[in-house]
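dumping this here before i forget
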Amino acid sequence: MKTTSILIILILLTIQINAQNTIAYEDCSTELTTIGVTSSSKKVNSEPEFPGGKKELAKYLSNNIRYPRNSRNSSSRGNVIVCFKIEKNGTITNVKVLKGVNKILNKEAKRVVSNMPNWKPAYEDGIAISKVLRIPIVFFRN
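structure:
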C-alpha cells in the first residue's frame, strides 16, 4: 500500500512538473504535449483527457504497471518517457519510447500505455483532432 501511494504521488508530481513542457517529435507533424492537460470535454478548444482526469490516470498506472520479475538487474529504476498519439476517436496509436531505462522496463511502459482505455480527444474549433502526448512512467524498487 505504501509503495502504491508513493508511486501515485511521484506520478502526479512528475505530471505537474512537466505540465508546461512541449517538444517537437521527429516522427509526427504535430507538436508533442506533455500530460498535464486541462480537464475539459468537448469544449471549442480542449486538450485530450484520460477518462476521469489525472487522478484516474495515476490510478490506472499504479494498478497496471508491473515491475518485470525477469529484469536482470533488480535495482533497475528510473523514468521511461513514452510518446503516443490520441486519435480523433480517442484511441491510442504510435506508442514509442522517447527516453528509456532498459529494454525490459521500456517494454513494460509501452505495454501499459498501449493498453490504456480510449481518451477524450482534443478539440480545436469544436472539431475533434489528433494530438501527440508524452507521459513519464516511473519505475522504482523498495
